[in-house]
Amino acid sequence: MRVPGRAAPLWAVLLAMLAWAPAAIAQQKADVAGEYTGEIGGQQANLRLRADAAGVLSGSLDHLDPAAPWMFVLADIHWNGQSLSFAIPSASADWTGAFSADGNTLTGTWTQKDGSLPVSFVRQQFVPAATPSRVDGIWLGTMAQSASTTARIQAVVKSDIVGREVRTLDDLDGYTMGVPCANVILKGEDFSFDIPVSGQRWAGKLSADGNKLTGAVSGKLITASGTKDYQDPLNFARQTALTPEKVRPAAAYDTAMAPVAAADLESVLDRDLAGALKSGELAPSTGSGVAIAVYERGVRRVFSYGAVKPDAIFEIGSITKTFTGLMLAQMAAQGKVKLDEPVRELLPPGTVAKPPGAEITLLDLAAQRSGLPPMPDNIDLADMDNPYASYHAADLMAYIGRHQVANPSRVTSQFGSLGFGLLGVALAQRGGVSYSGLLRDEIAGPLGLNDTVIALSPEQQLRLVAGHDEFHGPAKPWDSDALAGAIAIRSTASDMLVYLEANLHPESVKPAAGSPGAATLQQALRLSLQPQSDLSPGMRIGLGWLYQAETGNYWHNGATAACSSYAFFNPAGDYAAVVLFNASPGVNGSFVEVLGRHISQRLAGKPAIALSVAQAAAAN
């Protein structure tokens, strides 16, 4: 749950640094859904799997009995009717196993950085109490999310045969159902419960007639001056039946038209974005705008919509990773590093010991197969508005020293923010310059990208967009030090298009004379696009760039607290585009990614995902 005027919880901030990927997959069968109990490392763990109407599985793994409960949201869930697997990126863990013939036991292996162990989960059957408690039933409340939006919160409370109260919460408007609660206690008229996933607690009283719960949500707010407690009212009324969750808009597509030329794309988007400009993500009331640059068979156009100008400067988020990958290719082409060189050898002496077996290489970091978790665990979030500014190389080295650099399995991960941050630090260490200096010498200088920078000049500062959060409230730009290689670059649509054209036609690149990385840039561009690993079926990764076989696109996306981005190029079709948006992905998904896919489909002459659906979802 989101409270207006408050910093986002840690999990939301971290997710903005990750390239967003589906956490659940449409399954062949949904009978695996249910609640299971197992034991991991001596602690009871509750596995909860839920299937929606389309058979898409989502789930969580939690331990809710102690005073300090924990809960993880599952990712990369795969279920084929007999075998099940899931990952927990934030814990660098995964589980793989199979269903028993009677459908009651999941038997498999839990793997984490410290090793593997057998872990089984047994299906639990809820046995209700013979006499329900006074608080049992269905409850509905409304909670503010921002100054102009609210969310309906539904609670289901039931007591079991041994007298325990069990409670789950549904965010009906946020597509989040069945969130488990902990420490559910009814004592007299006092009722309370914890919400582990958001670090919040609700406490209040049951009315004399048993039909109202009056209370408040409390938690801790992290600010620049420290931590303070807060409370916000959230009252519930008893319901006679469950309220269904808001239906997520179904994917709809506009009819295919002939492949759109770059010169005609703006006029096509004038029509396609009409709804967004009037009442959706680009409406005047949002303060948001989008800059678009497109190249197609030698023709290029740059234009904008909404509250930004074509030359505006944006944070490009995780698209930064593709620049870091190209830096690696440049230094490899120059003989300064080797792709299979252990990252340990580029770090300050004594940072981390050599492991007995395989260890993390530079290529592992760039191809997202390092085995590192998405983010380090020693970030001091004293300022949630700018959470990574105070995380320096010494902090990252301390983390790597504790985590170690063994990499025996080279398992592919969807996320690579920590890995690319470490790669950026390692390359800068070997090159004897800052990450910003590497960007200038190896890429921005040779390509003439004058607005592609880390630190802004006074003139560039005037063109930096005013960013917005997922509710279109104001959001501040981020500064990064040790994690610069994952997220720190700022750029314009025009500069980004030059960068995409260079990737599209390395043989045609004419680097600026005298720039340090000019001689090897063509070779490095070709090297950076060579596929290195399979991320998922039909999706491969080079040195940062993702390659989708179905479309033939190389692509990447990005997000910060204030901006989001999407870029792609297609060698077979000889076209490329970038979309830069001055708002983070919304509560209903990423508008910029939908728009980027729409543009790609228009250029390819294929049915284009309807922007009206995304706009309606964002407006609701």
Account of the 3D structure:
The protein is of the alpha+beta class and 620 residues long. The protein has 3 domains: 10-123, Lipocalin, CATH 2.40.128; 137-239, Lipocalin; 253-619, 3-Layer(aba) Sandwich (Beta-lactamase). The protein has 14 helices and 33 strands. Strands 10, 11, 12, 13, 14, 15, 16, 17, 18 and 19 form a 10-stranded antiparallel beta sheet that branches. A 9-stranded antiparallel beta sheet has the order 4-3-2-1-9-8-7-6-5, with no helix packed on it. Strand 21 and strand 22 form a beta hairpin. The longest helix is centred in the last third of the chain and has 15 residues, at 417-431.
Labels describing this entry:
Lipocalin; 9-stranded antiparallel beta sheet; 14 helices; single chain; 10-stranded antiparallel beta sheet; 33 strands; Beta-lactamase; 620 residues; disordered N terminus; alpha+beta; globular; 3 domains
Helix run count? 14
CATH topology of the largest domain: Beta-lactamase
> Helical proportion?
10-25%
The CATH superfamily of the largest domain bears the name DD-peptidase/beta-lactamase superfamily
Q: How many domains would you count in the coordinates?
A: 3
The outline comes out as globular
Determine the mean pLDDT.
87
